[in-house]
């Protein structure tokens, strides 16, 4: 994901990420169908149904030739990323390794993001571009006198979303048991990396994750803390629905937008986008133009409606089944060990960050694959036995230390 090179193999437009997923797709599906990833789950089936329905809808709107190429890439980026995590992340040790990898990625990108923001030059993209074609340099207006850092991603907002993935695993899994100063420094690195995207969606998603982690820490002695949280959230939702002239979705868009102009554009996308979905509920409008206000940008910066807009309501339903199915099944899993509970909380908080960010940006490229990879990375908790795993790669303070067997002197 950190290599932004683009190349072609015949008609296939590939990136480093797509190439890896293309190679891994068939072996991962074989392992999944043979039971090496545990029982087949509802989100697994929903991923495949999502791809199949998008293919059917694209064929109806765009024709068979366009559908074959489009669905081929959708299969690689969606099923490839999801089943790669589903098959190879099977224990808390694996999830810890993922958390560590995400943190070091943030630590590696931070100095380049800082240089890009201060010098207003896309440092990393220029370096990679000297070797092979890369993503286009994203144009963006300076904010607070700095350039919005793009680093190796297609757009600064995607860089910010990607950084946000690392926060909860770092705060809850990777830093557990470490000295306070070390924990604080590692969390600050992730937050600083996300900050230089200077994008409202990722920063709001990160703020939500910080709030959820703090809620979990402050109320850790209260078993019903998450029931209380959902009760408060349900009350706010009902209150806004009954007493406000705007819908809860419109309030959320206003809340996460960086400025009034950005909020206005998101509201237009929501209003006209949902109107277009209602007008084309079965197969959507495809990849062509969609009905909107004169002068409104054609970009649909809202991940949670774009699938239904392009491919019909069923595509949105299957996507919701993947996301909500995984979150709810893992969230209600009982009998987990303390280490597994930390992994579960980190997983669900990261998914919550994706949920909020998805109202302000469409996920594409590496962030799209990261989204499905992250969903697949937590389903091992459904078959976890509640026993701690030891790993020599984990700090001693995090291992489940067992008493050594004492050998009597006469047997030595």
Largest sheet: 2 strands, antiparallel
Which secondary-structure class do the elements indicate?
mainly alpha
Strand content: under 5%
| Overall pLDDT | 87
Radius of gyration: 22 Å
Strand order of the largest sheet: 1-2
Overall 3D form: globular
Catalogue the unreliable spans: 391-412
SSE topology string: EEHHHHHHHHHHHHHHHH
Task: Work out the number of β strands.
Answer: 2
| Terminal CA distance | 53 Å
Tell me roughly what share of residues is in helical segments: 55-70%
| Separate helix tally | 16
What key phrases describe this protein's structure?
mainly alpha; 412 residues; single chain; 16 helices
Kindly describe this structure.
- With 412 residues, the protein is an all-alpha fold.
- 63% of the residues lie in helices and 2% in strands.
- The protein is built from 16 helices and two strands.
- The chain has helices at residues 16-33, 42-62, 64-88, 92-119, 123-129, 156-165, 167-174, 180-195, 200-218, 225-243, 248-256, 260-279, 303-311, 313-331, 338-357, 366-376, and strands spanning 6-9, 12-15.
- The chain has a two-stranded antiparallel sheet.
- β1 (6-9) and β2 (12-15) form a beta hairpin.
- α12 (260-279) packs parallel to α13.
- It is globular and about 55 Å long.
- Residues 391-412 have low confidence and may be disordered.
